[in-house]
Every structure is written in C-alpha cells, then in structure tokens.
Amino acid sequence: MAAETRVSRWYFGGLASCGAACCTHPLDLLKVHLQTQQEVKLRMTGMALRVVRAHGVLALYSGLSASLLRQMTYSLTRFAIYESLRDRLAEGSQGALPFYKKVLLGAVGGFTGGFVGTPADMVNVRMQNDVKLPSSQRRNYAHALDGLYRVARAEGLRKLFSGGSMASSRGALVTVGQLSCYDQAKQFVLGTGYFSDNIFTHFVASSIAGGCATFLCQPLDVLKTRLMNAKGEYRGVLHCAVETAKLGPLAFYKGLFPAGLRLVPHTVLTFVFLEQLRKHFGLRVPS
After folding, report:
1. Range of 245's domain?
2. Count: domains in the chain
C-alpha cells in the first residue's frame, strides 16, 4: 500500500487561529490599550492591573467575539489563499518552493485577508478599548455582530473599512512573517536531519515565525490601531503617521514587548493547532 500524508483543509487556518485567539486575547487587549495611550503612562503589568481592578478579570476578554470573527475572516482567508496556492505550485515543481515565492504568496494572501477582516478588526479594537473609556463615551457593543450593525447604521458601510489599507498592508507583512517564515524555518529545521516532523519542530519553527512577524508589522500595527479607534482626529494614514511621529520615533514601537508577547505565543499556538488538525483531520494524499 502506498504511503499517505495529510494536508490541511482550506478552513483549518481559521479554526487554528480561533483556538490561539482564545488563549492570547488578554494580551491582545493590553496591546491595544498601550497603543492608544497618548503618553506612555503605564506598562503592560500596570495596564493589566488597572483593567482588572477597575472592571474585573473578565474585562480582559472584552471583544472576544470580535476577535473570533476576525480570525474567521482575516486568518481563514489568508491561510486558505496561501496554502492553496503553495500546494498547487508545489505540484508542478520538484522539491520545496523557493523562499521568494513563499513571500509573494504570503503577501497576496495576507493583503487579501487583511481587507476581508477589516470590519471585524475595527469592531475588535473598539470593543477592547471600550473598558478604559468614561461611561458616557463607551460604545457598549453587545457582541461583534451588534458592533458591525451599529457602525453600518450610524456611520455608514464605508466606515466598516476605515483603516482598510493599513490593515491590508499589515496583513501582508504579518502573513509573510508567520506563514512564509514558518514554512522556511520548518524546512530548515527538518533539513538538518536532527529533527522529525513533530510538535517540537512545530514549536521551534513557529517561534521563529512569530519573532519575524512582530518585527515586520509593529509600526503598521500601531498606526492601524490608532486609525480604527479614531473619532475623526486623523485625516488619513499619512496624517496619523505624522501625529504619531510627534510623540517620538519610538512611538511606532509602542507596545512592542506586549505585541511580541502576544504575537509569538499566538503564532506558536496557531501552528501547533494547525499541525494537529492536519495530522488528525487533514485530507489524505499519496506521498
């Protein structure tokens, strides 16, 4: 009998990302709070204590429904595009794809996914930031779908895609950092001959990918968060960048540590979940 391997189904990336989001959502929330400070007043630990003391532990999961909706739009799209195109191109070539092709596929998948996920991402940022606003200024969305409906009704459908260009650009960068670098790191680790295709290899490769993604996307992530949480104070991306630059060059890396502390574990968990889904539920194909 011919040996068989398993490949991911097109929706596994979305499911794996949802699983990771459930674990790392508090870190994502703290990152948003830190990035939307006008002045650096609190670090991550201080911000966490402020949120818990003022609103309770469950406040760390504010906006979870929007985060899950984002993963099922943004991450599902980028994984589906990247893996489908990668596997199709690999069928017509001998050996692994060169890294530059993986980068191109990651950029295309991430850009598309970033645009598709912009509405859920905007609602996610607003719901996460709501707990630190005065009661009179809170939007109080009941859940992600309520947020989408209320934004569309009160601010127009176009507002749902506010910051879409920034989200798409960030999506391209983070997908290159995560998916392309993960594939390349996994290929390199397995190529040493000292490792097999197991959970330890997945952990090592995804840790490298998470670090690459954090480095690439942090400046755009700060601008995206500010644009999505804005109430009309920015005229566009360039104006937002100029105003952010007035706070100093390090303002573009505000929240870098919590961003990495969130993105690296999120990346690791996503790929660990993805590999387990592939191993147990993937499509069987001849080796």
Report:
1. 4-286
2. 1
Residues 36 and 51: their CA atoms lie apart, in Å, by: 14
pTM of the model: 0.83
Is residue 28 pLDDT above 60, yes or no?
yes
The pLDDT of residue 136 is above 90 = no
Over 90: is that where the pLDDT of 27 sits? no
CATH number at residue 264: 1.50.40.10
Residues 153-179: tens digit of each pLDDT: 999 999 999 878 878 988 999 999 999
pLDDT value of position 2: 47
Nearest CA to 224 out of 256, 262, 252 is that of 252
The candidate with the shortest Cα–Cα distance to 189, out of 174, 199, 178, 176, is 199
Q: C-alpha distances in angstroms, 178 versus 40, 124, 211, 219?
A: 29, 21, 9, 16
Q: Supply angle C-alpha 128, 133, 137, rounded to 5.
A: 110
pLDDT tens figures, 194-223: 999 999 999 999 999 999 999 888 888 788
